[in-house]
Amino acid sequence: MFKVDHSKGDGFEPIKPGEYEVTVINYELKKSSTGKNMVVVDYEIRSDVDQPCQGQKILFDNFVVSDNTEWRFQQASKAAQFPDGMSFNSYKEWADAFLNKPLRLVVGEREYNGKKNPQVNGFKVSEASAPSGITISDDDVPF
What we know:
Helices cover about 15% and strands about 35% of the residues. The chain has a 5-stranded antiparallel beta sheet. The protein is built from 2 helices and 5 strands. The protein starts with 17 loop residues before the first strand and ends in a 19-residue tail after the last strand. A hairpin with a 2-residue loop joins strand 4 and strand 5 (about 115-125). The protein has helices at about 70-80, 90-100, and strands spanning about 20-30, 35-45, 55-65, 100-110, 115-125. The protein is mainly beta.
């Protein structure tokens, strides 16, 4: 049974500009509108860290593969604590290594179609301890 309750529809507070502890939760390899390769990354604001907007997602952070935007890959790699000099054979390999990394994002705002959305403006090394592993008990599995 489901009953509509408008008082419960406000759920999430908007993600305001600031710094957030996040985990990289997803990526997709795509082409930009200009035909360049890009890695589109999604983050989740960590719930194990005392901060606003826990559990909310910051989506569609575009890493366009070009000389002018390589700095974003470098800054994100440093924040993910990849060793200096580490090399990757492809951007997919980089994205695979970036997945599940804890980071601290510097978040700003961009306006699109009259709506304000969070925008990743920078990357820092996480100041929180690494997220703990997920514990699954026998009661959690169906067999």
